[in-house]
């Protein structure tokens, strides 16, 4: 291990500018990747919390008996996709409607004739165990099933809003995934170039090691470690910058946008995820170095020396 660190310090001393430039580019790349993951994680979390308030209104036909209502309600409450199914009679529905419309049409508060136009209903809430990605599908399935019930007049669940809601989650997830792949590919290319430059600086040393029969890992090990170390360190620095940025946004949400009540729903990476992020960054560096070393230990240095001679 000591030999690996000596190799790393030698690389830094011989081409400091290249190493620092590589570290800056890598830190920026991992910062953007981490930001996309964090945004996706919190967007899904916030939308899931908002989605918990999604309700399906199942309007019952005129003349539906209490036994039929209880039977339908019982079947829904046994369904794993449903959190609860609450019965709303006409009087309760009218009261709720009048409360909502009080500031817009005060006369409605005293209009009892509305009662005969308001149907009884079941308010069905989707279970929290249903992920935000699947909520639209589950709502559509339930609406289709309930629409076939002989006691159901119609089903409403805010179809347009739910479609938009599901589309946002799916689009952000897919776009974020592809952007991360492209950014990590670019980061790998940068590390590969840095390691290739380090190999070129030590071509005479590599040639000697090959000629004396050094093992594959004795020659390649320091370069693989160099790539892993640069990747992991850049990932760690990106995580620090990301944490500072996240805290700044949290403070802004607590102050300027406190009415949205978003700050206490947002979460940064936990210790396990943060460690995984650093290891993944190091893995990108390791694999990029391995790509640069694919011809090393196959007579590469000797052939280079022969060409120059």
Strand order of the largest sheet: 2-3-1-4
Report the biggest beta sheet as strand number plus sense, adding barrel if it closes: 4 strands, antiparallel
CA-based gyration radius: 31 Å
Chain-averaged pLDDT: 78
Strand content: 5-15%
Number of helices: 10
Summed up, the domain count is 2
Principal-axis shape: elongated
Main structural class: alpha+beta
Summarize the topology.
Layout: H1 2-14, H2 16-51, E1 55-60, H3 66-78, E2 82-88, H4 90-101, E3 121-126, H5 135-147, E4 152-156, H6 159-201, H7 203-211, H8 216-255, H9 271-292, H10 300-308
Antiparallel strand pairs: 1-3, 1-4, 2-3
Helix pairs in contact: 1-2, 1-8, 2-6, 2-8, 6-8, 6-9, 7-10, 8-9
Provide structural commentary.
The chain is of the alpha+beta class. The protein has two domains: 2-49 and 166-308, no CATH class; 55-156, Alpha-Beta Plaits, CATH 3.30.70. 68% of the residues lie in helices and 8% in strands. A four-stranded antiparallel beta sheet has the order 2-3-1-4. Helix 2 (16-51) packs across helix 8 (216-255), helix 6 (159-201) packs antiparallel against helix 8 (216-255) and helix 7 (203-211) crosses helix 10 (300-308). The mean pLDDT is 78.
Question: What's the quick description here?
Answer:
The chain has 309 residues and is α+β, with helices and mostly antiparallel strands. Helix content is 68%, strand content 8%. It folds into two domains: 191 residues, no CATH class; 102 residues, Alpha-Beta Plaits (2-Layer Sandwich).
């Amino acid at each position: 291990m000591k030999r690996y660190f000596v190799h790393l310090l030698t690389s830094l001393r011989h081409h400091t500018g290249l190493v620092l430039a590589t570290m800056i580019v890598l830190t920026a790349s991992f910062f953007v990747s981490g930001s996309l993951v964090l945004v996706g994680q919190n967007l899904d979390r916030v939308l899931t919390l908002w989605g918990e308030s999604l309700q399906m209104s199942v309007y019952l036909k005129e003349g539906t008996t209490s036994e039929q209502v209880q039977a339908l309600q019982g079947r829904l409450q046994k369904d794993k996709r449903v959190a609860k199914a609450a019965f709303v009679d006409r009087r309760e529905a009218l009261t709720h409607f009048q409360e909502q419309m009080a500031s817009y049409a005060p006369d409605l508060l005293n209009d009892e004739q509305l009662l005969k136009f308001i149907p009884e209903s079941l308010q069905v809430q989707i279970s929290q165990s249903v992920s935000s990605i699947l909520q639209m599908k589950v709502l559509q399935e339930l609406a289709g099933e309930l629409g076939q019930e002989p006691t159901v007049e119609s089903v409403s669940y805010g179809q347009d809003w739910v479609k938009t809601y599901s589309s946002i989650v799916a689009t952000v997830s897919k776009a974020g995934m592809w952007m991360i792949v492209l950014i990590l590919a670019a980061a790998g290319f940068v590390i590969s170039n840095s390691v290739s430059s380090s190999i070129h600086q030590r071509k005479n040393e590599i040639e000697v090691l090959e000629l004396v029969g050094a093992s594959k890992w004795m020659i390649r090990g320091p370069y693989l470690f160099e790539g892993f170390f640069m990747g992991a360190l850049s990932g760690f620095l990106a995580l620090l910058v990301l944490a500072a940025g996240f805290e700044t946004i949290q403070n802004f949400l607590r102050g300027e946008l406190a009415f949205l009540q978003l700050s206490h729903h947002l979460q940064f990476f936990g210790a396990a995820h943060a460690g995984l992020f650093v290891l993944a960054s190091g893995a990108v560096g390791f694999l990029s170095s391995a790509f640069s070393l694919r011809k090393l230990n196959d007579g590469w240095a000797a052939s280079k020396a022969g060409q120059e001679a």
